[in-house]
Amino acid sequence: MDALNQKLCKLKPILYRGLSTDISGNIQFANNNTLIYPIGKVIVICKLSEETQQYIKLPRSDRKINIISISPNKKYLAVAEKLSNPRVSVFEISSRKRLKLLGNPLKNCTSDEFVCLNFTQDNKYLIGIIGEPDWLLLHYNWEKGRLESYTKAIYSNNRGTVQHICANPEDSTVIVLVGDGLYRQMNVTDTMWRQYGFQRAENIPLKTACWLNVDTVIAGSQDGRLILVKSGELRAVYKAYKIIQIEFEATNDSQKNSVTLASNTVTDEEKSGIFEVKCLTAFSQGFAYSCSPGIVTVFQKLNPFKYVRKNVISVMRSAVGDLKHVEINQINHIAVSPAENLIAATTHRTEIYTCKILTEQDLDKVPYVKFDIYSNGFHHGPIAAVSASVWKPLFITVGAIDKTARIWDYDTCKSVLIKDFPNEIYSASFHPSGLYCLMGFTDKLKLLLVLIDDLRAVREVDIKCCTLVSYSYGGNIFAAINRSNIEIYCAVYFIRLHLLENHQQPILSIVFTYDDLAMFVCDNSGFMYKWIIKDEKRIDGYTCSGSYTDLACTKDGLCCCTVSSDGTLKETIKGEVSRIVKLDENKALNTIEMSNSNEMLVVGNENGTLYTILYPLIHPPIYNQFHMHTVAVDKVIIAPGDRKLISTSKNGTLCLWNIISGENKNFRGHNAAVMTDILVSVNDYNEKIILINDLKTRLDEIETEHAYILQQISAGHQAALKEFHKGYLSTVEDLKFRIKQLEREHLVEINDFQSKLDETVNGHGDELEKQTKFYTAKLIDQYERFETLEQKNIEITEEYERLV
C-alpha cells in the first residue's frame, strides 16, 4: 500500500485567477511589488514584476470572507469571516501562517458578521465593528488574543449605522466611525471609550472616512459631499465631484467651494447616489477617493494645510450581462503602494486595475488617464468551456457572460490572445494542432483560425446554441450537440458524417476513444452510452441513481469511468460495472478526467475539492485531496504530457496546476514536439509585404534625402573648415613670429640684466675691499691702544703693590 501511495501524483497550484468582488478591502499592497487579493477562501499574494503567486488558504467551512484589512507596517493581514459566530484570523504575510484566531466572546450578541475592521497605527490592536442588531465596537489586543475593551458603536438611542472605521495615523487610542447619520471621533483610556468633538451628522449619509493628519478627518457621503473636521470641529463641506483644492486654515466664509450641512442644499441628482463618495484613502503625499462610476480622483499635498487635485484616473469597461456600465464600473476599493507611486483599484468586474499617481496631468487637456488592466484581465462570470491543444502549450477558455475568448500559454501562465465577440459563447474545443478551434455561438457553430493576434471565423455549421463540442483525438472529425442529438462532422469538409439520436435529456459530456472509432456519452437523465460511430450504433448503456455529470475513458476505450450527482465514481469494463467508489466528502461529483498515461483520475466535486485517484482503481481507492476552489468544480482537463492540469469552477475562477508524480517527475504521455508556428492569412501577409515594401521605399527615399542633406552640410562645413584652417595657419605663423621676437627681446633684456649685475657685483667688491681695509686698520689701532693700556695697567698695579 505504501508503494502505491508513492505512485500517487500531487498537484501544485501555480496560477489562480479570479477575484471576489463582494469582499471589503479586496485589494491590498504588501509592498511596492506585491498585491494581495481574495478569490473565495484563498488569499492570493502576487508579485507584480514576476507574476508569481503564493497562497493563504483559510480552513474549509461554510464561513464566508467578508473583510480583509492589512496592518500599517504591511506585515499582518486580518481576514473576517461571517456566520453565526463571526471571527477574525490574523495572518503573517511573509510566512503565510495564521497567528491568531479572534472570536466574539460577548454573550447575548446575535450579529453574524463584522462590518468594519482596522488595525491601529502601532500594529498591536485590531478594532472591529459587529453589525446589526448589536452594533458593538470590539477592541482586540490581537497579539495576546484577547478582547481589551468594547462599547456601543452607534449612538445610545440606536440611531445610525456604521459604514467605515479608521484608526488615527499617529495615536493608537483614537479612531473615527462614520455611517448613515453617524460621525463619532472616539478615544480609549483604561478600557473606557469616550466621544469628543463634532457629532451632528444626522442629515449626512456618510460612507467612508480617512485621517489626513493626526487631527484632521475628511469623510465622504452618499450624496457626494466631503466634510472636513479638524481638531474635532467641522471646518468645511465640499462637493466631492467639483472640488479642486482644499485649504485647512481658510475660514468657511472665504472658501469658495464650501457648502453648508443643510439638507436642502443637496439636489435630487445628488440624493440618487450617483456621486457617492467611496474608498477615501489617505497617504503621506495626499489622498484619493471615487465619487463617479469608474473614476478615481487623487489629491496631492502641497503643504500641511493645502491639497490640490492632481490626477483623475478612469476605468471604462463595457457592460457585462445584467450589469450595466454604471454598475460594473463602481469602484469597490482603492490601495496605494508604500512608495506612493502606484494605485490599485477594483470594481464589480473580476479584474484588478493599476496606475501611476502624482504624475503630471493637464486636467484641462487630458481630463482622464486610464487605468491599466493587471495581467490582461480575466473572465467576468462563469467559464463556459475550456480546452487544450496538443501541439502547442495552449488552452482556450470562453466566458459564458462576458462573450470573451482567451487563449493561454500554460508554460508562461499568461493569456496570449483575447477576443471579444458580439454574441454569447456556449462551447469551445481546441484542435490538437492548436491552429484553429470550434466555438458555439448563439446563431452558429463556427471554425476560427488562431492567428497571432486574432480569432478569425472561416467556416460555420448551422447549429444554434451548441452547448458542447469536441474534436476527436486525431482531430479529423468533431462532435457537436444539437439539442438532444450528437452530430459528427468531417473537420476538413464540414460535412455531417453521422447522426447519433434519441438522447432524452441535455447531454453533459462526450468523450472520444483514442482511436476515434467510438464515443462515450452521458446525459442529465442518468444514462450513459457507448456509441460505435461508423455504425451509429449505441451499446453498453448504464443508469445511475442520480444523474451522470461527466465521464472519462482509457486509451483503448475498454474502460470508462463516470461520476454522478449522488457522489459515486463508477468504473465500467467491457460493458460491466466493475467498481463503485464513494469518496469521503459524500458530495456530488461534477467532473472527471483521465490522465494521458492512464495512471491517474482527477475528480472535482460540488464543494470545490479536487481528487487525484490512483488508476487502475483498487479497494479502498488511493487518492489525495486538493483545495483551491470555493464552489463546485465544473471542468477539469489535463494538458498533453500530463504536466499541467486546468480546473474551473462555477463562479468563474480558473486554477492552473503542476502535476508532480510520486517520484517527483512529470508524466510523459506523448512525444509530440512543441510547435511554435502560427497561421497568417494570405491577405494579411500580402498587406504586410506591401506595407514593408512601401516602408522600404520610403526608407530609401529618406536615406537618399538624408544623404543629399548630409552632403550639402558636409560641403558647407568643409568650406567653413578650409576658411578656418587658413585663419588658423595665419594665426600660427603670427604667433611663431611673435614668439621669436619676444625671444630676441628677452635675450637683450637678459644681457642688460647681466651687465648691470656684473657692474653691481664689481662696485660692491671694491666697496667691500675699502671697508675691509678701513676697519682692519681701525681694528689694529684699537688693538695697539688696548695693549698700551694693558701695559700701563700692569705698571700701575706693580707700583701700588710696591707702595703697599
TrEMBL record:
<dbReference type="InterPro" id="IPR052993">
    <property type="entry name" value="CFA-57"/>
</dbReference>
<keyword id="KW-0853">WD repeat</keyword>
<dbReference type="InterPro" id="IPR019775">
    <property type="entry name" value="WD40_repeat_CS"/>
</dbReference>
<dbReference type="InterPro" id="IPR036322">
    <property type="entry name" value="WD40_repeat_dom_sf"/>
</dbReference>
<dbReference type="InterPro" id="IPR001680">
    <property type="entry name" value="WD40_rpt"/>
</dbReference>
<keyword id="KW-0677">Repeat</keyword>
<feature type="coiled-coil region">
    <location>
        <begin position="685"/>
        <end position="745"/>
    </location>
</feature>
<protein>
    <recommendedName>
        <fullName>WD repeat-containing protein 65</fullName>
    </recommendedName>
</protein>
<dbReference type="InterPro" id="IPR015943">
    <property type="entry name" value="WD40/YVTN_repeat-like_dom_sf"/>
</dbReference>
<keyword id="KW-0175">Coiled coil</keyword>
<feature type="repeat" description="WD">
    <location>
        <begin position="626"/>
        <end position="667"/>
    </location>
</feature>
